[in-house]
Specification:
The chain is mainly beta. It has one helix and eleven strands, in the order αβββββββββββ.
Amino acid sequence: MKPRCLLATLASALIVMGSSSADACRIWIAPRAGFHGHVNFGGGIMLAPGYWYTGLGLAAVRILDQAGGTEQLESGGGVSLYAGVRLNEVLSLELGWLASFHNPTRINTWYGPDVDFLVLDGGTFDARVHLSPSERFDPYLTGGLGLYTLSSEHFGIDSIGSGFQVGGGFDYWIASVASVGIRVRFHGISMDAPDSRDDTLFISAASAEGAVTLHF
């Protein structure tokens, strides 16, 4: 046991400087196979490798405020996809996509009547900061930047721009490789027509998502 703890202590010195000699040798294991937390061996801290995850969710999007634009957006709903990597006990990095459908309108097409939606798309890059997870419950804060578009299903992109999103949520582990969770975020978006340089559409929105996540 002593050689194992010595190796762990030397490895931890490259990651955490000045750890207390009274601390136990703790190794963080990614929450797999129903385990989430630390294993005590005696002396320093060592982080185990992280893992990848991907998920699919349903989202409700509420438009809080809008300035500009040719049409006032109503609240709507849609889907979300995301994939990321859990780097360590505290931090994850994630790429995501959120698409919500708004303002249904009946239109006539070459194949007959149909319903057209305004679609708010967001491609996002976020960081998750995990807050003292327990064995099954994993709460976190999240924030990042995104590229957003507002388009019509039948008439193409109307506006494009950038924005940010901040919020929080939690995952609850239901199996060794699966969890369910809820996430709530605020989105601040600034957009304009693709051929314009001046932003004339500003949207403040809130999204609530329920998702299933697989962990690898």
